[in-house]
Design brief:
By secondary structure, the chain is an alpha+beta fold. The protein is built from 20 helices and 29 strands.
Length: 716
């Protein structure tokens, strides 16, 4: 009954297809396992095969190892990975062992917030000292020393001898046409003197044709010898020729060229050899028929100037107006000037103003600060305004019954980072208020009685303290009461100094007499297009194309004298030079005074420490070596987002540098502060009988050069 069923064509086809697929799978499996005899065999053993259909009707084999973890690494790869891990662990271990101390040291250094300390020391003298800035060689400081040590001269004699020397040793900064201003303290009386640059008017029609100018031209006038002679008459002791002796010797025998002077010569080589042909030989040295410019330290001579100095020594300042000098002017400038016209101009023009100083008191009137003059006191009032604000913010912590003087061993009293940042925040606000005050004084919108009124000072100090305590980030513009247009018009435009000031300080501890002065040319030797180079004098004079023949030297800052009222001695002398104008020099002086008088820091640390500067209307700058911890705290704590480094070139376009300023590679020119401090020290003279020992006061005179600039101190 069994029935045999024959396969249909469809079944046959399916069987054939299955057989073909089986063979294909086996073949594929054999390729994958490198075992042609077993399609399901792997490197781990024989495994069952699972088949999956594809969309195209084909089947693929999926091999799954159920006994071992799935991996794609060989033994060699595992070994390499293990060795790499061991090396990584070793590197981390070494880093932790040796790197952590360095990281810790860097962290401690950051939070220590130490200021830069220069290698320059404080210079100590017991009798007298003479400081001359911007020349690292002793020539001009020694010229003043000669007056005090060997000639029994006065402090004014020493200052004038150094001043004449600078016209020879630093002609790029000081000339016979330079103005100067300063203070003299003699016989317990203090005076200010102000010598302003003058310009002699030239004939307008001929100068228009020569210089293609529509304005009146004028020639700088040699006021320095005439003003020096008048100061000598009032405060000098030695003979007039004695004052000029050191300068004559240097002009004939040579003075070493300073580093700054050498840089100026080499930077202006082309102009020196083309436009200054009359005096080019003074700056050239010939070796084996080869000419080259003088370098730093080599001797510079000026025989023409030596001849003129001898004439001034014999005939005083009238020697300037000799016929050959007038003929030279007429020939070079195509003028018809006579000696009588020059002398007439001299008689009608006030060359020097001697006045009383502007005085303000600190520490309950136990300390007087003298600066400026009653006729020219804008900068002095601004300085007093800033110092009184800082005194109000700081002096409250000091016992008013104690002596305000700090001891010699005092320096950098301990303070936390927060306290330091708070101090600098006070300083930034105070400088900003001071800039506003200076702008208002220049615009005649304020006066001394208003700014220095104690109730107004208290109000400003309270505003600063409260706003700082509350960490106010967004301040009302009325807080500073700043009008941007006023700041721009009365302050920024005047802060473009193309000259460089030079400071002279003389302190005679034997008599207590002091002379401090700041001098500058309106234009440095190589600055400006139009010059008159005198073969007769060997000096470069400026030609100005403007109608103002009595331009004052607004870029020259007033020095400061700090007097101890009780002991009746000059306790401290401060002079600021350099920078871009009076606001920067004022800021430098305020910061040094703040450190010395209010923070009890030494003279050295006060001058060395980095400073902050204000650029109206809304930017502040810090010197590049300012401790980063303080800057970070000022930015984060007090939202000082407008703080920039003086070396940051990203905002050079915002600095409004002069069009003819060839130093645009320097964002912020350095400003230097020079200082002398007199301390009364009690010494004990021990005799054979100790009970009869005598205590005597003696002088301890400290002097300091700012490392940012150059200078030399001479004394005994």
């Amino acid at each position: 009954m069994g029935k045999t069923i024959e396969p249909t064509s469809s079944s046959s086809s399916s069987s054939s297809s299955s057989s073909t697929t089986n063979e294909t799978a086996k073949s594929s499996s054999s390729l994958l396992t490198n075992n042609p005899n077993s399609g399901s065999s792997t490197r781990y053993g024989t495994l069952p095969s699972n088949f999956a259909s594809t969309s195209s009707g084909f089947k693929r084999t999926m091999l799954i190892d159920t006994r071992y973890p799935r991996t794609y690494f060989t033994r060699k790869q595992f070994l390499i990975a293990a060795i790499s891990m061991l090396l990584f662990i070793a590197a981390v271990t070494v880093t932790l062992i040796f790197g952590l101390p360095r990281l810790k040291a860097k962290r401690e250094e950051y939070f220590a917030a130490r200021f830069y300390e220069s290698p320059l020391p404080e210079v100590l003298h017991s009798k007298f000292a003479i400081l001359v800035s911007d020349n690292e060689y002793p020539s001009c400081a020694d010229a003043g020393r000669e007056m005090l040590l060997n000639r029994n001269g006065s402090a004014m004699d020493a200052a004038l001898a150094s001043l004449f020397c600078l016209t020879m040793a630093s002609p790029h900064l000081v000339g016979l046409d330079s103005g100067f201003r300063g203070l003299v303290h003699s016989d317990q009386k203090t005076y200010t003197f102000d010598v302003m640059e003058r310009s002699f008017p030239l004939q307008q029609q001929q100068q228009q044709e020569k210089f293609n100018s529509t304005t009146k031209a004028s020639l700088s006038y040699p006021v320095l010898p005439m003003a020096a002679e008048q100061l000598w008459r009032n405060f000098g002791k030695v003979s007039w020729p004695t004052i000029l002796m050191p300068s004559i010797w240097l002009a004939e025998n040579g003075a070493p060229i300073s580093e700054h002077f050498a840089q100026e010569i080499h930077a202006n080589q082309n102009r020196l050899l083309s436009d200054f042909k009359i005096i080019r030989d003074h700056f050239i040295r010939s070796i084996n028929s080869t000419e080259r410019l003088l370098n730093d330290g080599e001797l510079y001579k000026n025989p023409s100037l030596a001849t003129l100095f001898r004439s001034i020594s014999a005939n005083r300042s009238m020697a300037l107006f000799q016929q050959n000098y007038v003929d030279e002017i007429n020939q070079f400038l195509n003028e018809t000037i006579s000696i009588e016209q020059l002398r007439s101009f001299l008689s009608k023009t006030e060359m020097i103003t001697i006045d009383e100083p502007f005085i303000f008191s600190m520490f309950d009137s136990r300390l007087n600060i003298l600066t400026g003059s009653l006729k020219n006191s804008n900068e002095a009032i601004s300085l007093a305004f800033m110092m009184k604000i800082l005194e109000k913010l700081t002096y409250n912590e000091i016992n008013s019954d104690s002596n305000y003087f700090c001891h010699d061993e005092d320096d950098l009293h301990e303070r936390s980072l927060k306290e330091g940042a708070l101090e600098f925040q006070y300083l930034l606000d105070t400088i900003e208020f001071g800039a506003t005050a200076l702008a208002k004084l220049r615009a005649r919108q304020s006066n001394e009685s208003y700014l220095l009124n104690q109730s107004y000072i208290d109000q400003i100090a309270k505003q600063i303290a409260e706003s700082t305590a509350k960490k106010i980030n967004q301040r009302d513009p009325d807080y500073f009461d700043i009008k941007n247009s006023l700041i721009q018009e009365e302050l920024v435009d005047r802060e473009k100094s193309v000259a460089h000031n030079v400071q002279i300080i003389v302190y005679d501890g034997r008599t207590g007499d002091v002379v401090t002065l700041t001098t500058s040319k309106r234009r440095s030797m190589f600055n400006g297009k139009h010059k008159f180079i005198s073969k007769f004098t060997g000096i470069v004079y400026d030609i100005f194309n403007d109608n103002d023949d009595t331009i004052a030297h607004s870029q020259v800052s007033w020095p400061l004298l700090i007097k101890d009222v009780q002991q009746e001695i000059i306790h401290l002398i401060i002079g600021s030079v350099g920078g871009r104008g009076s606001l920067q020099t004022l800021s430098s002086a305020v910061q040094v005074l703040n450190k010395i008088l209010l923070n009890c820091q030494t003279l050295k640390s006060s001058l060395d420490e980095s400073r902050l500067f204000y650029r109206p209307p809304d930017k502040f700058f810090y010197e590049s070596n300012f401790p980063r911890a303080y800057i970070d705290l000022l930015i984060r704590m007090f939202d000082r987002q407008n703080l920039w480094s003086t070396d940051d070139k990203r905002i050079v376009n915002n600095q409004q540098l002069d069009n003819d300023d060839d130093s645009t590679n320097r964002l912020w020119p350095d400003s230097g502060v020079y200082a002398m401090m007199m301390m009364m020290v009690t010494t004990e003279n021990v005799t054979k009988n100790i009970e009869n020992s005598i205590q005597q006061p003696s002088n301890k005179l400290r002097s300091m050069i700012d490392y940012r600039m150059n200078g030399y101190i001479s004394g005994q």
